[in-house]
Amino acid sequence: MTAQPFVVVAGVGPGTGASVARRFAKAYPVVLLARGTDKFEKLAQEINDQGGKAIGISADVSSAESLASAFQQIEKEFPGANAAAAVFNAAAGFVRKPFLEVTEKEFASAWEVSQKGAFLFSQHVLPFLLKHAKDSSASHPPTLIFTGATAGVKANARVAAFATSNFAKRALAISLAKEFGPEGVHVAWANIDGPIDIPGRDDYRKDLPAEQKIDPDEIAGAYWGLHVQSKRAFTNEIDIRTSVEKW
Ligand SMILES: NC(=O)c1ccc[n+]([C@@H]2O[C@H](COP(=O)([O-])OP(=O)(O)OC[C@H]3O[C@@H](n4cnc5c(N)ncnc54)[C@H](OP(=O)(O)O)[C@@H]3O)[C@@H](O)[C@H]2O)c1
Q1: Does the pLDDT of residue 206 top 80, yes or no?
Q2: SS3 78
Q3: Whose CA is nearest to atom 5 of ligand 1?
Q4: Ligand 1 mean position to 146 CA, how many Å?
């Protein structure tokens, strides 16, 4: 009998990462990756207490060694299992400042996570997704989703590091969708077009009314919707914004 497939979320925090983990945990064991254990310990406990299965692993997606070690732990925890879905949700700190003041470190840090991290994560997880694509008992096609931002389609002034690294992440998603779609892996990029309403982040755009902030549970619902699409109707790009967003 095939081992139960797992789902891995790279970049778990209280917002999108946690919502996606909770949604996919209704159907699969989930692996939560973040650098800080504080980002996943309570969440894993919550999912396990509610009858799901979650494990958290401290990992930095921008480090090849760290990701290799995380995937070794995953293989140990779920021997022989495939991956039903993988979500790349990590991003470096947002830098908005005049271009001439952007430091090399700030620029590189955006690329380290959104471009190199997305590349490393994809290389590690795709073999598990490809195995799932060949499993005739799989309920849905394996899914690899990249959380993106407006900056992946629209480069605005003063956000050069964020925009260029997001364009790169989107380009990676498109390239992988074309390479691995024919092999049965559904790759999608999500444009999260607006601020996310992150629980517990009262400081975060606190003056914005709720209707101007995107509900992360709804993002998770949309990701689940992508996951359950059949091979005869893959959506490879999706825009998510509030009804009042100017775009
Ligand atoms: N927040 C917004 O308003 C907004 C708007 C549009 C798009 N987005 C996109 O949404 C995604 C993030 O979702 P979210 O904002 O709701 O955040 P979230 O899911 O609450 O948290 C993301 C998590 O990523 C982890 N992370 C960052 N760098 C990492 C690394 N190098 N390795 C492993 N994990 C890492 C962080 O934990 P550690 O620091 O402990 O690693 C953080 O907790 C990003 O792609 C972002 O560009 C966000």
Answers
A1: no
A2: coil
A3: 195
A4: 11
